[in-house]
Amino acid sequence: YLKLKAAGHYTRGRGYYEQFRNDDDFSTYGFDPVVLGGDTVTTTDLIRRRWLDNHFYGGIFALTHAKNNLSLTLGGGANQYLGAHYGEVIWAEFASSSSIRDRYYDNDSKKTDLSSYLKATYNWNKLTIYGDLQFRHIDYSFLGIDQVQGEIQAVDQNVKYNFINPKAGFMYSFNYSSNIYASVAVANREPVRKDFRENTAENRPDPEQLINTEVGYRYNSSRLLVRANAYHMYYNNQLILTGQINDVGGYTRTNVDKSYRLGLELEAGYKITRKLNMTGNLALSQNKVAEFNEYVDNYDIGGQDTITHLNTDLAFSPNIIASAGVAYEAFKGFEINLLGKYVGSQFLDNTSTDTRKIDSYFISNLQLSYTIK
What we know:
- The protein is mainly β.
- It has one helix at residues 193-197, and strands at 2-25, 34-36, 39-41, 43-67, 70-92, 103-124, 127-148, 151-154, 157-173, 178-189, 208-220, 224-245, 251-271, 276-297, 304-313, 320-331, 334-343, 346-347, 357-358, 361-370.
- It has a 16-stranded antiparallel β-sheet that branches. A two-stranded antiparallel sheet has the order 2-3.
- The protein is globular.
């Protein structure tokens, strides 16, 4: 009745890219001015190399007790990421007093992620009930200096989060072919490294929270497949780009109080004959931000103008996606597939402005395949 699973992992990552820079300021790299004759040199052409040098390791476990109709699982994990982000000057026309491969920025980051969960599943006749409760602790720090929007900035920060993520749901099977299900889940997610690196401790964004509710129906027989899923994804403090400039001069993602995605997903497949199949799916959705402020640079008087938007569409979120396909086996081993896909219009940002819209489009794909065994 008792099973234990455990695993350890280690991943090593290391690499760089190089850039030629024309007439960069000495101050960017900590170079002292150079006096040549009667002239003071404060800029130089150079080649710089930017490194990532990472270690990721940890372990996970799951202890499961399954007896009769009840299954209980206690699990968790501990992971740590060590990342060295640094830059070197490997050639310069005027190197000042520097030496090759001197580091002009050096940012060591460490992220510790600890989690544990308890999950229960109970089967009673045709009904399955399940619940899941996870606790997650994050300790993230990054030290040194780094480049933010082309400038050297101090980014010494440390942040800790404690998240509780619950989930519950059920599935009811009418028979072998069909069932219904419903679930509700809460998920919390911390900002990514870019959000921390390009903000100071005073204005860094808050973590995001998602409350996801789903209900659906599935039917599957030898000839017919039908699936329907309705969902509502409600966000607290979703992070989006608004055009706002942070206190170190960079465009940053900003929390918006309330936003949501509400949708219906439909999928069907039918085997007309032994050689002819049809499939199709349809996704209908609304993806909205209740209210947010857009910040636009004012080049006439300086600074930024603020524009308030109400009930606008989330960026890159079409309200309709649909596809349909036909597959025909002309003879043994040779199959013809025709697939068409439609994607509705979507916006490049969260303002629902027509001049920033990607128009709807339709694509079709014809595939001929022959298999030799």
